[in-house]
Design goal:
Helix 2 runs antiparallel to helix 3 and helix 3 runs antiparallel to helix 4. The longest helix has 22 residues. A hairpin with a 2-residue loop joins strand 1 and strand 2. Helices cover about 60% and strands about 5% of the residues. The protein is globular and about 35 Å long. The chain is built from five helices and two strands; from the N terminus they run αααββαα. Strands 1-2 form a two-stranded antiparallel sheet. By secondary structure, the protein is mainly alpha-helical. It has a domain of about 80 residues. The C terminus is likely disordered.
């Protein structure tokens, strides 16, 4: 059985529901984007992943202009949305969900859903504190 966009929406909604209140989605979004990028990049390569991500961001920005502060390069998707956004908590939540569901759907369609279980698993991981750099 293959996953569908509704499966992606369920995984994203569970991730959104696990976040810690207003604004937490944005704080956690960069961590999730980085983790998903690493997982997908191992299979697709950075050139393909950049092209896919740029196309997805165009769709997202068309619907949510404040997400125009996001950028993509070979290192991943960079989330600079919080800087100067006028979006309400509900709008941020909707935009974040739309971004993740759209990206997961495109990645799933292009890979015959082979990456979907690993990407959903990454979404299900609790936020981890980044280790402090050692001197």
């Amino acid at each position: 059985m293959t996953d569908t966009p509704s499966d992606h929406a369920e995984a994203v909604e569970a991730w959104l529901g696990a976040s810690g209140g207003p604004g937490a989605e944005l704080r956690d979004l960069q961590r999730v984007l980085d983790a998903l990028w690493r997982r997908a990049g191992a299979t697709l390569g950075e050139i393909t992943l950049v092209a896919i991500s740029e196309r997805v961001l165009c769709d997202v920005v068309e619907r949510f202009p404040d997400f125009g502060a996001m950028s993509v390069d070979a290192a991943g998707i960079h989330c600079d949305v919080a800087k100067g956004t006028t979006m309400s908590h509900d709008e941020l939540r909707e935009a974040t969900g739309f971004l993740l569901v759209t990206w997961l759907t495109v990645l799933g369609n292009l890979t015959a859903e082979i990456l979907t279980p690993a990407l959903h698993e990454e979404l299900a991981q609790p936020a981890r504190d980044e280790p402090e750099p050692t001197a």
